Amino acid sequence: MRYILALVILLAGVVPACAERPATDYQLYAEGKYDEAIKAGLAANDAVGFAQAARATLAEDASRDKPCLECLQRAEDYARRAVAADPKLSDARVYLAYALGLETHIEGSLQARLKGYPGQAKRALDAALAADPKNAWALAARGSWNIAIVRGGGATFAGLFYGATLKNGMDDFAAAFNAAPDNMIVLYQYALTLSEYDAVHYHDYIATALTHVMRTKADTAYERLMQKRAGELQELLKTGDLAAYLARVRKYQGYP
Questions:
Q1: Predicted pLDDT at 26
Q2: Quick check: 11 pLDDT over 60?
Q3: Phi then psi for 54, rounded to 5 degrees?
Q4: Per-residue pLDDT tens for 60-108?
Q5: Looking at the domain that runs over 2-252, which CATH code has it been given?
Q6: So where are the chain's domains?
Q7: Fewer beta carbons below 10 Å: N end or C end of the chain?
Q8: Of the candidates 60, 61, 62, 53, which has an alpha carbon nearest to the alpha carbon of residue 18?
Q9: Helices 136-157 and 166-179 sit at what angle, rounded to 10 degrees?
């Protein structure tokens, strides 16, 4: 597992960037004007616009003190509309997987399995990577998916029913780091994912990841918020109060 830490040390930064739009559209998102960004995306009435609406909705939900299931369901709907409009738009499938994952945190793993969320998310991410094999967001999301499935059901269940393994998750994160070595959000998601899986065993990996998040320039309102949260986690980790640290991790992972 040391090769993961080595990759993290080389890095200089739970919402991926969208396919390019006019600067004014992106500026709304970058400035944290999520409602306006959503309206602009829906008004475009095309695949990239729907994907933009999904991204802004996810960012807006992440900014709330408590998660909003209806908001996540809207993000899911926008992402599905984007996929329907352009099946090859990989970002849209990533937003779909993120939305389903966050809905799972609210609804619970049993309800999520009954609705088929884990399988839907995996198929979305596999399709995203088939269209764009170096999509760092998709790689990181699939890494989180693998590790979360193993954490939730155990290695035997995860492998038998979903083909998920810890190694696959780590390999996906390593590929994400190679694809986007300066991406603070990928690194932040890596820290959250390992914290939820085993914060004691992976303490040094997590601490190193959070340190590099804090050293990376934040260019958007969303990145600034995630960097602020990374700083809070970093300080809690230093105190050694594991219960307080894990409670904050769960909050930032979107659990109610």
A1: 80
A2: no
A3: -65, -45
A4: 999 999 999 999 999 999 999 999 999 999 999 999 999 999 999 999 9
A5: 1.25.40.10
A6: 2-252
A7: N
A8: 53
A9: 170
